[in-house]
Specification:
Elements: H1 5-10, H2 16-23, H3 31-48, H4 51-54, H5 65-86, E1 94-96, H6 98-117, H7 122-149, H8 161-183, H9 193-198, H10 200-220, H11 225-244, H12 248-253, H13 287-312, H14 318-334, E2 340-342, H15 344-352, H16 359-373, H17 384-403, H18 412-427, H19 430-446, H20 458-467
Antiparallel strand pairs: 1-2
Helix pairs in contact: 3-16, 5-14, 5-16, 6-7, 6-13, 7-13, 7-14, 8-13, 8-17, 8-18, 8-19, 10-11, 10-17, 13-14, 13-15, 18-19
């Protein structure tokens, strides 16, 4: 695939072409269908990412949400096209990502408070925030390119497999909780068991659907199973609507479909990026948050690459992939967008669906472009449990494999470290949980406890299950 000369020089890597050819095998799935599924799922996620703005003091951004959400969608398209062009992984999904958005949310909150204290107009505050966050995204991208060029990302490869396994299980848990919150129409921050029980009629179909899809995919391992399950799920929902004489307004009012705002015209997407109104004096206060964001995004992106490497059973160039993330953020920021990286859950979804073609990523970007220019929202026709079922399937798959199934191919100590890392991430956060997991691994190794090899590939584990450990 051809690349833009300037950007190509940033990510030049002699191993890139060879690696791409190694992992680019004939596709055994329907890349188009999988990408449409991912596009709809990503659209719903980008809709929910308006929390970046809503969390920034009171309801300041509420009147501007339709335009800001559309700008987030544009950013997702830019990220996906960059990953299609530069990543060595043909199945890679790159979109706006939460790790950077958390920092952007705090930055937005600080700028709104500062603007209000200085009695700035709403237009001035809005311009300052949107332009500043785009510039911070560009700086993030430059920082990631520098880290990749200095070849610092490769040290993540030293993480033990059992620790990464705990992280993968957490990703599964995160997907499951996100799916439940989505089906219950409740944010993850306010999700409680009581609310889940209250909305059990909305949550149960999605969880059941995810379990059925997982069982069928694991049982039959055929490329048609997943698309067939999706068609059946949607068919049952629409048939039930027809039998009960319900309209889309009825099911939306009852909570089966999330309420959506009417999308604004495409030409209004960049209305708020007005350089003449920006209060430039507030930018220096963002330096500390910017440095923290660079570190966290570099770490989280490298962890995603490590997890994909484990799944793929092929050595990846961490530094090249981090430079790819950096270039993607530079382009996103220059187009008024926000931070992004690999979306691990959807990349694994594509990998396990048998996608080995860049066509899938391109179809995803095209679907997002179509959604961008449509005068209505597709989400008003898709039930919440559809997304919940897909997220539940990913949850069951990752948690079962890395918390239970893996126990037969690693030592007992490694299994306990994997479980402990999963729990530590829950108690603290991803960074501290992984660090404590590594410390636990080091203590076991130092005291002579058998913690196996530092790395064990997915293929090795499959072979041990098939032929027996030697």
């Amino acid at each position: 695939m051809g690349t833009i000369p300037v950007l190509s020089s940033l990510i030049d890597n002699p191993q890139h072409d060879q690696l791409s050819s190694d992992v680019t095998q004939p596709s055994v799935a329907f890349p188009g269908k999988s990408s449409v599924i991912e596009a709809i799922t990503e659209l719903h996620k980008e809709k929910s990412q308006q929390s970046v703005w809503i969390s920034a003091t009171d309801t300041f951004f509420s009147p501007y949400m339709p335009v800001l959400v559309k700008l987030t969608l544009v950013s997702g398209i830019v990220h996906q096209l960059c990953f299609c062009a530069f990543s060595s992984l043909p199945f890679a999904i790159g979109q706006v990502q939460d790790a950077g958005l958390i920092f952007l949310s705090n930055m937005a909150s600080d700028m709104v408070k500062a603007g209000m204290e200085q009695d700035d107009s709403a237009d001035r505050i809005l311009a300052t925030v949107t332009v500043s966050l785009s510039l911070c995204t560009v700086v993030l991208g430059v920082g990631l390119v520098v880290i990749g060029r200095l070849r610092l990302a490769q040290y993540v490869r030293m993480l033990p497999t059992c620790v990464i396994g705990g992280y993968l299980a957490f990703i599964g848990w995160f997907c499951g909780i996100a799916g439940i919150g989505l089906m219950a129409n409740v944010s993850q921050a306010t999700l409680t068991p009581t609310l889940v029980l209250r909305h059990s009629d909305k949550v149960a179909p999605g969880i059941a659907g995810g379990m059925v899809i997982y069982a069928l995919v694991r049982r039959y391992r055929h490329m048609a199973v997943l698309p067939a399950c999706i068609v059946v799920m949607l068919g049952i929902f629409y048939m039930t609507m027809w039998l009960f004489g319900a309209t889309f307004d009825d099911v939306t009012r009852d909570g089966w479909i999330r309420t959506t705002d009417e999308p604004p015209q495409l030409r209004r997407t960049w209305d708020y990026l007005r350089l003449d109104l920006v209060n430039w004096s507030g930018l220096p206060r963002l330096v500390t948050s910017e440095l923290g964001m660079i570190f966290i995004v570099a770490l989280s992106s490298s962890l995603d690459v490590a997890a994909i490497e484990l799944e793929l059973n092929d050595q990846l160039d961490y530094n090249h992939e981090l430079v790819t993330v950096g270039v993607s953020n530079i382009v996103s920021g220059l187009t008024g967008g926000y931070t992004g990286s690999y979306i691990f859950s959807q990349s694994i979804f594509s990998l396990r669906a048998g996608i080995r073609s860049r066509v899938a990523g391109l179809v995803l970007a095209i679907c997002q472009i179509v959604v961008l220019i449509l005068p209505f929202s597709l989400l008003q026709y898709v039930p919440n449990f559809f997304f919940g079922a897909l997220l539940s399937m990913i949850c069951i798959d990752l948690m079962y494999e890395w918390l239970w199934d893996v126990r037969t191919t690693i030592t007992q100590a490694e299994h306990m470290i994997s479980l402990s890392t999963f729990l530590l991430i829950q108690l603290f956060n991803v960074e501290w949980g992984i660090l404590l997991g590594v410390c636990l691994y080091a203590i076991c190794w130092k005291t002579g406890i058998d913690v196996g090899d530092l790395k064990i590939s997915r293929q090795q584990r499959d072979n041990e299950v098939k032929y027996g450990a030697t």
